[in-house]
Amino acid sequence: MNLAEGVQVISFAILAALVIIAALGVVLLENIVYSAFLLGGVFISISGIYVLLNADFVAAAQVLIYVGAVNVLILFAIMLVNKKQDYSNLPGRWIKRGATALVCGGLFALLATMVLITPWSLESNAPGLIENTVVEIGKHFFSDFLLPFELASVLLLMAMVGAIVLARRDFIPDTLPTEDGIVTSLQLPERLSELESRELSASKSSEV
Amino acid sequence: MQLEFCLLLAAALFCIGIYGLVISRNAVRVLMSIELLLNAVNLNLMGFSNFLDPVGIKGQIFTVFVITVAAAEAAVGLAIVLTIYRNRETTDMEQFNLLKW
């Protein structure tokens, strides 16, 4: 990257501030829809930092996969699971939050000291940067990282099949044959949820 | 821009992610915190790849793999949350006792 040093430092500072503020918003805001949108802001800011770190392909992949797929999936899940619940009725809630904040602050202090006192071996006369990272990443994928690349494709297939099997609606199987003939699966009743079936069995046992 | 700034930012993001993972009671927010953790790891990998290994960009390869696994994890995790919500009518982490005893 042939930007001046000051420009790089200032851009990095702005992007880092955006990342930290948006991540705090993700964790601390009460409304989860705001959290989901701020998560998209975190991903986009991190993609900007990748551009500053000379990784254009991974920055594009970050925007496409995280903002375009994962964040949209999270928003869909929020819309499907949107039920007003009161989360503030647990005793000792502030004690738990304070203890967690203390532990996390201690972990950050530990990591920061480790980062600052370690002498990283940065050689000043580094050889020239690669111009085209896409070609280089492709070479790595098909030579020395071929097995993980293929395993990643198998993993994606397994995750897709597993997610479909889990999220699919189940139907009651013994209502399939009716006297009217074949019923399409769209008209079948849904299987009872755990609470409903429990209530049903309770009412049956109280009748008996 | 130095390597230390990058690592400090990644450490801060990681700690925020762990805080959210522990305190949040909505299951979807827990998954969002896990995404924050994975992004902190990615930031570390990219920093080391740029400053210590600028020619053989191995860190970027690993980042691509981490992004792949994160996408798969998000899909399966959200499907599990959806199934639990359909069966129990809640997404509160305090009320999930399916694996207890």
Automatic annotation (TrEMBL), chain A:
Record EC number: 7.1.1.-
Reactions accelerated catalytically: a plastoquinone + NADH + (n+1) H(+)(in) = a plastoquinol + NAD(+) + n H(+)(out); a plastoquinone + NADPH + (n+1) H(+)(in) = a plastoquinol + NADP(+) + n H(+)(out)
Alphabetized InterPro entries for the sequence: NADH_UbQ/plastoQ_OxRdtase_su6, Nuo/plastoQ_OxRdtase_6_NuoJ
Organism domain of life: Bacteria
Single Gene Ontology MF annotation: NADH dehydrogenase (ubiquinone) activity
Topology relative to the membrane: Multi-pass membrane protein
Listed transmembrane segments: 6-29, 36-53, 59-81, 101-122, 145-167
PANTHER family: NADH-UBIQUINONE OXIDOREDUCTASE CHAIN 6 (PTHR33269:SF17)
NCBIfam families in UniProt: PRK06638.1-3
UniProt record similarity statement: Belongs to the complex I subunit 6 family.
Protein name: NADH-quinone oxidoreductase subunit J
Species, as recorded: Crocosphaera subtropica (strain ATCC 51142 / BH68) (Cyanothece sp. (strain ATCC 51142))
